[in-house]
């Protein structure tokens, strides 16, 4: 049975807390920009260091900044239909757009990408690649695809490798089939739906809170924005919409661009925020407040 988004996220965070954070290290100031300061960084704990922080630290006579070690992450793409993005697809093939997206997003989020792989829909090959990744002192293994009813082999492979399932269905849209698991004292595992937009949402709202905790950053707090239009939604599901913000005389407002199940990437380029609507009800009325998060 599907569990709520809040319950699924809490299970992931509880598993992360049980595993613990990596210690901090000190690096020269020239290498500190973009890293997350540890609790000993002269009042900048949990912040991603910028040149202004380097200026302040240097003025205090600090030559090296204490920063959190980058979370070590690997990911594996599944699907025999996937081809490299620079190739022209033949009938039945699609470009693997999520692989370069994950490389870029994980770097921006402050991760160290340790390994990546792409495999066809073969449970034994998938399991062999994941098993190799489990030997590399990782914090998190991500996988895209292999979760649909037609190709639901990832959960079984993870279980056979000793993974303990935390959730395998969430009351969300568009990432209902997201899978969370943990490997004992080893890494956590997060299975992302294969559709590119569902991958983006699952990374943003399942993986990002995990990474923030590992980096010692505070829990992210949304802004509130008024809905400019009535939005119909499936009852019982937390829905993640691409949104467009507007500042007006009554404060911040937002417009939902597309149904969260839409696979259109163009609307992500037009959006400047995520609009999150709660599980309750089958519509949210115009003028109601909604939680909005940065892209």
Taking Cα atoms only, what radius of gyration do you get, to the nearest Å? Answer: 20 Å
Task: Tell the overall outline.
Answer: globular
Distance between the termini: 29 Å
Order of helices and strands: HEHEEEEHEHEHEEEEHEEEEHEEE
Rounded mean pLDDT score = 93
β-strand amount: 25-35%
The total of beta strands comes to 18
**Biggest β-sheet description:** 6 strands, mixed
Oligomer: single chain
In which order are the strands of the major sheet placed? 6-3-7-11-10-8
What portion of residues is helical?
25-40%
TL;DR of this structure?
With 295 residues, this protein is of the alpha/beta class. It has seven helices and 18 strands. Helix 1 packs across helix 6.
């Amino acid at each position: 049975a599907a569990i709520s988004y809040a319950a699924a996220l809490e299970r992931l965070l509880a598993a992360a807390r049980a595993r613990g954070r990596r210690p901090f290290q000190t690096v020269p100031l020239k290498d500190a920009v973009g890293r997350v300061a540890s609790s000993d960084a002269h009042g900048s704990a949990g912040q991603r260091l910028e040149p202004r922080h380097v200026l302040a630290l240097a003025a205090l006579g600090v030559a090296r900044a204490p920063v959190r070690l980058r979370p070590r992450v690997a990911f594996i793409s599944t699907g025999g239909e996937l081809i490299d993005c620079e190739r022209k697809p033949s009938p039945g093939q699609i470009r693997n757009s999520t692989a370069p997206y994950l490389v870029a997003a994980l770097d921006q989020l402050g991760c160290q990408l340790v390994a990546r792989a792409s495999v066809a829909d073969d449970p034994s090959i998938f399991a062999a690649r994941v098993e190799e990744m489990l030997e590399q002192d990782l914090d998190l293994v991500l996988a895209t695809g292999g979760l649909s009813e037609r190709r639901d082999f990832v959960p079984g492979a993870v279980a056979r490798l000793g993974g303990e399932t935390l959730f395998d269905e969430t009351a969300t849209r568009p990432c209902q089939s997201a899978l969370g698991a943990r490997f004992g004292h080893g890494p956590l595992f997060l299975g992302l739906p294969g559709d590119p937009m569902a991958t983006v949402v699952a990374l943003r709202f399942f993986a990002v809170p995990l990474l923030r905790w590992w980096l010692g950053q505070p829990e992210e707090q949304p802004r509130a924005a008024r809905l400019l239009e009535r939005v119909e939604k499936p009852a019982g599901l937390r829905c993640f919409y691409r949104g467009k913000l507007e500042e007006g005389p009554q404060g911040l407002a937002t417009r939902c661009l597309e149904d969260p199940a839409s696979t259109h990437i163009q609307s992500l380029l037009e959006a400047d925020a995520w609009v999150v609507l709660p599980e309750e009800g089958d519509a949210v009325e115009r003028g109601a407040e909604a939680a909005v998060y940065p892209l």
